[in-house]
């Protein structure tokens, strides 16, 4: 509007000055009208809404930035799992393997077959010998029956006492075995963490040797506790079987004494039923074959690990997880149920969720490194980390091997369930 007024005054003065120079007397004022603006077509709607679109875009960028500030990365993370060990209950050669590494198996599916012919023959011989020994005794008299009944009653009382002691010993051995297994797993994870960080180069030769020696000693103690528990279990099972036999003998002698007749007792040597041994070893849960340690045709000892199984399917959430350590102010906002992104060393990306948040603690010995120590009042003290157990959802991807290093990012902020891209 101001520009049009200036143009109008400029034209008016030019006309007036021209008339004065020509000697023309203007009796009337000269009015000049500016041309009216032509009315054009209105601007498009999207063009008029450009400020609104810009505001919405700025708001979306702000929301995404706010969500991104809630992502808390881990300082240390490692995949862990409860691995099932498949081992035979008797020593025999391995006849054939039905699976190979990487195969997925269902619960109850046969994994391998042992050559149990020699073991089955031994069981048959033992059964025939026991039957022959039972048949050597002749028909008892009244005095012999009473004496045997009294001896059976005394043996039952003694066996009950010994069985109680055996059960107590078995429980103690089981508890010791569980403690030794837990100690070995903790030291093994510690050694794996050192190896994943570079081994001797990261922590020094002496500390690495100390960790290796501690893990080896814990393994020996675990194996020893396993042997002692199995021996106590066999002893308890043998006593229960013997107690059952004594009670059957007592019942038979009581029946014979109550009838007060002693007809010739037929031979007790009965045909021993044929013993059938299941030579197959089966998968205890839905799982994936992690390792096949045995070789078909080679002998395997009792308790020797032949196949390692990694639980899959419905068992993954219970037996497969990531142990991650977080530090900083963002760790205080981590809660159970929050989603997590897991990035493995090979570039594979998995999804998970926070299962448990534990109390802050220092990193296990051998995993601290330079970042695990901070200076407080001039003294070096271990930094406190927040341990978090995170579930793993592999989807269609194969499960990675336990001990693999990973990087976890927990998404702590959301808007109506949206955690960002």
From TrEMBL:
Keywords: Coiled coil, Membrane, Transmembrane, Transmembrane helix. It is a single-pass membrane protein. It is found in: Membrane. InterPro entries: MFP. GO terms for cellular component: membrane. Residues 208-256 form a coiled coil. This is Multidrug resistance efflux pump-like protein. It comes from uncultured Desulfovibrio sp.
